Amino acid sequence: MELNNEIPLHPPRDASTVLLLRDGALGIEVFLVKRHTASNVLGGAYVFPGGKLDAADSALNPRHLNLSAQALHSKLGESETSAQRASGLFVAALRETFEEAGVLLSETPPARDTGGGPQDFHALLATQGLRLDVQALHPWVRWITPRMPSVTNRRFDTRFFMAVMPAYQTAAHDNVEATASAWLRPREALEQYWNQTMQMAPPQIMSLAHLARHENVASVLAELRTRTPVTILPESHDQEGQRVICYPGDPRHSVASRALPGPTRLVWRNQRFEPEGGLSALWAD
What we know:
By secondary structure, the chain is an alpha+beta fold. It contains seven helices and twelve strands. The strands form two sheets. Strands 1, 2, 3, 4, 5, 6, 7 and 8 form an eight-stranded mixed beta sheet that branches. Strands 9-10-11-12 form a four-stranded antiparallel beta sheet, with no helix packed on it.
């Protein structure tokens, strides 16, 4: 990744991403995909399946959802977002998970193997009369790209959702937008980032650091039941020749109270963003 110094003129684009979770032999695991190196957004980096909100997502016939738009609006917890757009964000999350990971969260399995990739998501729903299991998505964190982005020249307003991996499906990258994938324990993924075998952007680093505090999926779901999604708008500064990204609770951030566990800032070093206290600072209390 290269450090960006451009300030985009366009407002952030709505997007959704999904942390697919499962319990492995050694603890909780999350599914990560490697974006194609030719991608103009985080090319070569490992991310969670996700992407931009499409117009068709918000226009999906309600018969394909197992919750109403009003219920999804309440679940998302954003008073300024319309019910239609809130519903679309849930649909976008499930569509991107299908397209990039081959996993379709629906009330009943499709009549044939989805396979992801070339199949059209909306056509599949229509031809098989499927209902998406939007209840399986749990809003977690809303990340808004800083006004001065650091690893891309675009801004996104991304809703991060949690979902439990269905036992009857297999996650796999699509070989189009994503060229590799892996189920990893959060600390294992962060160790690979630290050892420079994986590139990661700050939201993925901080999300994995948060997830590393949980031993299993049940622990994550229990936390989700106790809180509403938080909004994170990082603030970027150039300090002594280094780019610094600050999070709520940091002395240089405009919001005084913390919103995330772990460090309150990341610093651009070694062609990536790092916590000032080293790898262990990501999961230190």
